[in-house]
């Protein structure tokens, strides 16, 4: 007998019970006093009961193959023809190794798409490299800006020191210039207005 899909009452009515949401389509036993599914009235959805079990030779199989948990490449190599692999929870480093091995040997795992995984890994690596290069550029720009500021400050200090040296060497010229400026400015007498 083909496998029957058991659904809870009201799945066709409410989104939270599974309307247009496959991941919410979960069976729950009908428990209401006047519930027509519980009373097994004609034309209602099927209630779980004895007789819907799979044949013993098909029970526990996935796509007709016995599922085996896979942790490494060695586990994949040990898989028999009647077995299919289920990838365990492992880190990205091992996942990369397994993905390359699976793609090379054309092996299928139930819960792992090697092509998709490798694309995501390559995309992530490119993004990481781009971010790294951008950070390096920003750091270089900052360092260049700091160096420019330091150079400008050094030049300004050198100019000031040169000016001070020039002032010390030629103080007589400055005094003469100041006297000449004083002579040019003449004071006008103020007129009293009444």
Structure in a nutshell:
The chain is mainly α. It has helices at 73-77, 92-105, 114-169, 171-184, and strands at residues 66-70, 83-87. The chain has 4 helices and 2 strands, in the order βαβααα.
Characterization of the model:
The structure is a single chain. 46% of the residues lie in helices and 5% in strands. By secondary structure, it is mainly α. The longest helix is centred in the last third of the chain and has 56 residues, at 114-169. The N and C termini lie far apart (128 Å).
What structural keywords apply?
194 residues; single chain; 4 helices; elongated; two-stranded parallel sheet; mainly alpha
Name the average pLDDT: 88
Q: Tell me the span between the first and last alpha carbons.
A: 128 Å
Q: State the order of secondary-structure elements, H for helix, E for strand.
A: EHEHHH
**Annotation field: number of helices:** 4
Rg calculated over all Cα atoms: 43 Å
Q: Report the helical percentage.
A: 40-55%
What oligomeric state best describes the polypeptide chains here? single chain
Q: Ranges with pLDDT <50 over ≥5 residues?
A: none
Question: What coarse outline follows from CA principal-axis ratios?
Answer: elongated
Number of strands: 2
Overall SS class: mainly alpha
Query: Widest sheet: strand order?
Result: 1-2
Strand content: 5-15%
For the biggest sheet, the summary is: 2 strands, parallel
């Amino acid at each position: 007998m083909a496998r029957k899909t058991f659904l809870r009452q009201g799945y066709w009515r409410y989104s939270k019970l599974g309307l247009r949401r496959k991941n919410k389509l979960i069976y729950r036993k009908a428990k209401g006093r006047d519930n027509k599914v519980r009373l097994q009235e004609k034309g209602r959805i099927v209630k779980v009961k004895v007789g819907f079990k799979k044949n013993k030779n098909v029970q526990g199989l996935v796509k007709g193959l016995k599922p085996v948990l896979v942790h490494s490449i060695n586990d994949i190599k040990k898989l028999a023809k009647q077995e299919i692999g289920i990838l365990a929870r492992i880190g990205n480093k091992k996942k990369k190794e397994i993905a390359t091995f699976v793609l090379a040997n054309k092996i299928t795992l139930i819960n792992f798409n090697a092509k998709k995984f490798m694309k995501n890994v390559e995309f992530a690596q490119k993004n990481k490299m781009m971010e790294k290069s951008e950070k390096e550029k920003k750091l270089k720009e900052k360092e260049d800006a700091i160096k420019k500021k330091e150079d400008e400050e050094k030049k300004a200090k050198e100019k000031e020191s040169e000016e001070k040296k020039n002032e010390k060497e030629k103080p007589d010229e400055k005094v003469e210039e100041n006297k000449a400026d004083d002579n040019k400015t003449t004071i006008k007498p103020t007129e009293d207005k009444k």
